[in-house]
């Protein structure tokens, strides 16, 4: 059983001062095994903060990231799942499912995590999942000002992944859960 | 079965043709472990089973049928299974589909401590801790304990136990308590499989086999065939093999019955079952940790808080360590005191010994033998004669098992005895304690422990109070030597305690009074002093008259305290003037010098006044002397300070030079002294000051005070230091005296005549003295008379004075020496010592005198 935290588009300090306090209190070290971050942190301090939550941190580069060493895309394997990571500003049209599915096939991953739109979305698509965790700080995007802070926690266990969606709506944390089972065919395909 | 797993101590597998006479097997196991309680051990060759019985998991009554055992076993397993189901949470698996979980609460990041996720995280934390220890468990037996299956079992058991007992939690060492339990179960199961191999036909039900083989035929199996088979079997095996269960030896029979899948409770009731090893191990572990209804619960050893109802208020393991040292102290006080001296406290090593029940000190095989013994000892509390009102401190010694554990530890200490005694610092000592030698004769050690166990139990019952006292001493971490023998600590303690209550008070009072009196003596005039003196005399007289000793004995301690105080007061008063007299002596001497040098008339006057005063004081003198006489006779025999003897003799001498037998004719001497005082008194004021104390002189001196005040300033050092020293000595005497009164009082009456004897002998011996003193006094008078006329000869006369003083002192010294010799021959040893000490102090005083005289002679 592995817990993977996925978040992105914090835009600290340009568009938001910090993570919401409620999120911060929930994110405590020791629980999470991996963090995947889609990008736009934007400064090193955020990177450091994420490191304190979990040392295993994976970041791709957003267009506002100071650190240019982050890769454009990244893949990693956790348990029996292969995860792909990309900020998403490169994939046009932004947030388009088909374009993202293309990237998913390209990277050959079961779960693709992208950002940039600042809107939480999760699609089950072609035996895989495409997830956008939204903006963890609720920073505005070039698309919309109406953004709820949100992030995603994935509980990967064997062939099963449970996606917990944490969204801050009107000062309350709302949690949602999406179950996803990897089918045997996909498994054998690998 | 891996051969390494076979317990080397297990009896050899029975020969194929087993006769009914199987006991050699049992005996074999007895020999190995040295058991004395074989008859109690129902499952001697099945250690795991035996332990389960001993630990209270299975009923221990020998009448319990196999079926009952199976039922209890099944119940235990069911309980464990339930527990496991309840406590081991798998949060990411929904309990059931219908259950709609509250996601705000039940999510991985939930802060709610009751959520399944936080429980899961807590468990995970615990698991990590347990795993850390388990991965290092018995590396030498790695082929068994490090297998994933075994680790899994151990982890689950520990986890469940800790979750079940959250107040205890997981502590390092628990896994080492658990591992041997699982190990013996494993050994049992292997033994079973071995037996099963040998007697396959008994274990395997033929119908089972048929059913399995001809599964598809379902119910239509051939009865005839099976009948044939049965007959076949009987025919073929015949007499070579065992035909039925009844023909097996009882031990094997039990094994078969215990593992019969069709017995009570079916498969779940198979007492020896590999499938349920985990369940059984948990039950054993739980029983061991909680100490089912017994007093030794291993869990207590891991807790850092005192157990409820503990009298000592110490963590149990510390308490047990204390008990251990207590036992050691009884068995081997020299080793005990050595360890104490080094500051090696028992918990330094016993923590490690007790928490894992010696698991770290012995190899696993030896450990199993030791545990055999430990578990074989009854864990129930010993019936106490004193009952509940006194629950003595050391709980570990309450039960035979606890006593055995303590005894085992002490036996280990004794095993290391010589090497421990050779250590000189705590570090090496602990090194040796913590590196227990591996190649030891386990049998001997156990025998020793057993004998110690009996001792511990008997001691515990017979003398509970020293335990508590011993404990109190330790709890204060005083750990004094006085603890070495309980009997010793108790008996002297009470009187000392009684004494100390009033003793210091008294001492302070006495010191205070002395101070006051001294001041009084210097500042005030004679009348008050006289009053004090007479008071004292009256006091002593009253006391002497009432003949206190017998009453004192009768009236007991409180009375004796009062009496003692009286004595002290009297003594103090008697000594107080004495000191002053000494002080006065110095003054007087100095005064005289000045007087002599300045004006002879002053001396003349002095003499005159002295004469007058001494006249009047001599009125009182006899009574005073008798008082002193009496008081000194009261105390001088218990302590018999030579000072007093000296004092005595001088007073008698002072009252009348002629009569040595002053005591006999007190009143008459009073008369005589009244009749012809002028001569002796006028002589003595000069002679006696040098020989120190005399009441007459003291009185005279006090009159001289106005004149001496000037001199006082001249030589303050001498006058101040000397009396103080004296006083110190006196207080030492007081102290000793106060201590001795209780014992000494009884002997006082009998020995009352003694001091008079000694004093009379003293005075007899000091008969040689009077001539000298008289000569010196003549000197004085001559000096004073000469001084009248010749002033230039002052220096010469002073030298003469000094010389005469020296002579005088020498005489006194010689007298003392003789006195001492006599004392040695007469008195008992302790008194002699005291007398000797007194003489030493007197000698010191004389030395001071000598100094003065030296100064004088120098001048």
From TrEMBL, chain A:
GO CC terms: cytoplasmic vesicle; cytosol; retromer complex
Pfam family, one: Metallophos_2
Keywords: Protein transport, Transport
Protein's GO biological process: protein transport; retrograde transport, endosome to Golgi
All residue ranges annotated as the Calcineurin-like phosphoesterase domain in the record: 4-157
SUPFAM superfamilies hit by this protein: Metallo-dependent phosphatases
UniProt cross-references to NCBIfam families, sorted A to Z: yfcE
Family note: Belongs to the VPS29 family.
Name of the protein in question: Vacuolar protein sorting-associated protein 29
High-level lineage: Eukaryota, Viridiplantae, Streptophyta, Embryophyta, Tracheophyta
TrEMBL record, chain B:
SUPFAM superfamilies for this protein: Ypt/Rab-GAP domain of gyp1p
Polar residues: compositionally biased ranges: 603-616, 704-721, 778-791
PROSITE patterns, per the entry: TBC_RABGAP
Rab-GAP TBC domain segment(s): 41-378
Biased composition, class Pro residues, residue ranges: 1-17
Name the UniProt record assigns to this protein: Rab-GAP TBC domain-containing protein
Ranges for region Disordered: 1-39, 539-560, 601-652, 669-725, 749-791
């Amino acid at each position: 059983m592995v817990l993977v935290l996925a978040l992105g588009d914090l835009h600290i300090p340009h568009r938001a001062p910090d993570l919401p306090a409620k999120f911060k209190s929930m994110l405590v070290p020791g629980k999470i095994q991996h963090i995947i971050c889609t990008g736009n942190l934007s400064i090193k301090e955020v990177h450091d903060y994420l490191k304190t939550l979990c040392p295993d941190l994976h970041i791709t580069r957003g267009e506002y990231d100071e650190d240019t060493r982050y890769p454009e895309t990244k893949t990693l394997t956790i348990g029996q799942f292969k995860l792909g990571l990309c900020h998403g500003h490169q994939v046009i049209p932004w947030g388009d499912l088909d374009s993202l599915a293309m990237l998913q096939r390209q990277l050959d991953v079961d779960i693709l995590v992208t950002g940039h739109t600042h809107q939480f979305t999760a699609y089950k698509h072609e035996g895989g999942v495409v997830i956008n965790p939204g903006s963890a700080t609720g920073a505005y995007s070039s698309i919309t000002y109406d953004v709820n802070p949100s992030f995603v926690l994935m509980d990967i266990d064997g062939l099963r992944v449970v996606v917990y969606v944490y969204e801050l709506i009107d000062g309350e944390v709302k949690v949602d859960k999406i179950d996803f089972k990897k089918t045997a065919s996909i498994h054998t395909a690998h | 079965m891996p051969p390494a797993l076979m317990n080397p101590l297990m009896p050899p597998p029975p020969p194929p043709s087993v006769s009914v006479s199987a006991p050699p097997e049992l005996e074999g196991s007895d020999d190995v472990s040295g058991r004395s309680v074989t008859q109690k051990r129902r499952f001697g060759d099945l250690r795991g089973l035996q332990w389960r019985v001993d630990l209270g998991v299975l009923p221990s009554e020998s009448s319990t049928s196999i079926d009952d055992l199976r039922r209890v076993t099944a119940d235990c397993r069911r309980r464990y299974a339930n527990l496991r189901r309840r406590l081991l949470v798998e949060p990411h698996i929904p309990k059931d589909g219908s259950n709609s979980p509250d996601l705000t609460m039940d999510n991985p990041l939930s802060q709610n401590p009751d959520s399944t996720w936080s429980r899961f995280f807590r468990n995970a934390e615990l698991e990590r801790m347990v795993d850390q220890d388990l991965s290092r468990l018995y590396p030498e037996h790695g082929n068994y304990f490090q297998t994933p299956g075994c680790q899994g079992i151990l982890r689950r058991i520990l986890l469940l136990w800790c979750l079940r007992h959250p107040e205890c939690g997981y502590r390092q060492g628990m896994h080492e308590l658990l591992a041997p339990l699982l190990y013996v179960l494993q050994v049992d199961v292997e033994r079973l499989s071995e037996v099963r191999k040998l007697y396959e036909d008994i274990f395997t039900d033929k119908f089972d086999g048929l059913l399995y083989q001809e599964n598809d035929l379902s119910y239509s199996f051939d009865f005839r065939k099976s009948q044939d088979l049965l007959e076949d079997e009987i025919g073929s095996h015949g007499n070579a093999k065992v035909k039925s269960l009844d023909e097996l030896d009882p031990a094997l029979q039990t094994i078969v019955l215990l593992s019969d899948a069709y017995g009570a409770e079916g498969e779940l009731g198979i007492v020896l079952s590999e499938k349920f090893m985990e369940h059984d191990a948990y039950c054993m572990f739980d029983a061991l940790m909680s100490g089912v209804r017994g007093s030794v619960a291993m869990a207590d050893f891991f807790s850092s808080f005192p157990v409820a109802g503990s009298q000592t208020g110490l963590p149990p393991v510390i308490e047990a360590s204390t008990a251990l040292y207590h036992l050691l102290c009884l068995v081997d006080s020299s080793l005990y005191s050595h360890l104490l001296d080094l500051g090696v406290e028992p918990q330094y090593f016993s923590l490690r010994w007790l928490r894992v029940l010696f698991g770290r000190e012995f190899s696993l095989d030896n450990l199993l033998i030791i545990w055999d013994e430990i578990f074989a000892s009854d864990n129930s509390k010993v019936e106490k004669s004193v009952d509940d009102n006194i629950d003595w401190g050391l709980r570990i010694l309450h039960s035979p098992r606890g006593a055995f554990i303590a005894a085992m530890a002490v036996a280990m200490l004794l095993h290391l005895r010589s090497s421990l005694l050779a250590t000189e610092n705590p570090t090496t000592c602990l090194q040796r304690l913590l590196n227990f030698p591996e190649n030891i004769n386990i049998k001997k050690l156990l025998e020793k422990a057993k004998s110690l166990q009996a001792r511990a139990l008997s001691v515990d019952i017979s003398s509970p109070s020293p335990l508590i006292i011993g404990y109190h001493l330790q709890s204060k971490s005083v750990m004094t030597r006085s603890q070495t023998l309980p009997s010793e600590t108790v008996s002297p303690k009470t009187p000392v305690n009684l004494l100390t209550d009033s003793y210091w008070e008294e001492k302070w009072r006495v010191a205070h009074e002395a101070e006051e009196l001294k001041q009084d003596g210097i500042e005030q005039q004679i009348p008050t002093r006289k009053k004090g003196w007479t008071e004292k005399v009256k006091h002593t007289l009253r006391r002497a008259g009432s003949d206190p000793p017998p009453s004192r004995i009768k009236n007991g301690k409180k009375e004796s305290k009062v009496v003692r105080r009286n004595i002290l007061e009297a003594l103090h008063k008697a000594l107080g003037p004495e000191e002053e007299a000494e002080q006065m002596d110095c003054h007087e001497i100095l005064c005289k010098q000045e007087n002599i040098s300045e004006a002879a008339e002053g001396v003349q006057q002095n003499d005159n006044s002295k004469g007058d005063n001494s006249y009047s004081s001599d009125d009182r003198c006899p009574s005073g002397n008798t008082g002193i006489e009496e008081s000194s006779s009261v105390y001088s025999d218990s302590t018999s300070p030579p000072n007093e003897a000296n004092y005595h003799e001088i007073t008698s001498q002072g009252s009348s030079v002629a009569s040595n037998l002053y005591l006999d004719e007190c009143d008459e001497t009073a008369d005589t002294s009244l009749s012809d005082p002028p001569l002796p008194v006028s002589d003595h004021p000069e002679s006696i000051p040098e020989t120190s104390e005399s009441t007459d002189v003291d009185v005279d001196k006090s009159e001289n005070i106005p004149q001496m005040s000037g001199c006082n300033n001249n030589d303050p050092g001498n006058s101040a230091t000397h009396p103080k020293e004296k006083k110190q000595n006196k207080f030492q005497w007081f102290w000793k005296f106060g201590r001795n009164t209780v014992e000494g009082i009884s002997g006082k009456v009998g020995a009352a005549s003694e001091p008079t004897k000694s004093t009379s002998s003293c005075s007899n011996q000091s008969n040689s003295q009077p001539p000298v003193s008289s000569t010196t006094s003549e000197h004085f008078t001559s000096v004073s008379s000469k001084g009248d006329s010749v002033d230039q000869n002052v220096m010469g006369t002073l030298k003469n004075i000094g010389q005469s003083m020296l002579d005088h002192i020498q005489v006194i010294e010689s007298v003392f020496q003789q006195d001492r010799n006599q004392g040695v021959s007469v008195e008992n040893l302790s008194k002699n010592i005291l007398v000797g000490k007194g003489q030493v102090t007197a000698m010191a005083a004389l030395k001071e005198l000598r100094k003065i005289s030296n100064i004088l002679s120098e001048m």
